[in-house]
Design a protein that fits this description.
Elements lengths: L2 H12 L4 H8 L3 H14 L19 H10 L5 H11 L6 H11 L14 H18 L1
Length: about 140
């Protein structure tokens, strides 16, 4: 809801209009009128709360530690880094948030664990299959 409408609702309440009257007049719910009035009374304004914006990373003070871990063991995966953060730093962080922090620090890490990588044999067989289909098509 616009800040202007919020101010008009609060102004009407200040003039002594009841919640029901204000609801009908401005076409808003009774709970909205009560909420704006309560905000005005407690905070001195009825502006909406901030939506979004910058939020400090849980790892913002641990950049040096992250750099040391990756320098010492360059093949750490995100999952391994996440586990270290939890166990050694007592910081619980999601994989996406961890990735963003590493990206912001300009750090690189191992993308996936060895069991999940394509083996050379699979890559070669896929390449052979593509070559055969290209030969048939062309």
């Amino acid at each position: 809801m616009s800040e202007d409408l919020r101010r008009r609702i609060v102004a009407a309440r200040k003039k002594g209009e009841g919640e029901s009257e204000v609801c009908r007049r401005f076409g808003v719910s009774r709970s909205s009128v009560a909420r704006f009035w309560q905000q005005q009374q407690s905070r001195g304004h009825c502006r909406p709360k901030q939506v979004g914006g910058y939020r400090k990373s849980r790892l913002s003070e641990h950049g040096k530690t992250l750099r040391q871990w990756i320098r010492r063991q360059a093949d750490l995966t995100l999952v391994e880094l996440q586990r270290r953060c939890r166990e050694q730093l007592q910081v619980t962080i999601g994989l996406t948030a961890l990735w963003h922090r590493l990206d912001r620090l300009g750090l690189s890490y191992k993308k996936n664990d060895p069991r999940r990588r394509a083996t050379a044999a699979r890559r070669q067989s896929r390449a052979a299959a593509l070559a055969q289909s290209a030969a048939r098509a062309g």
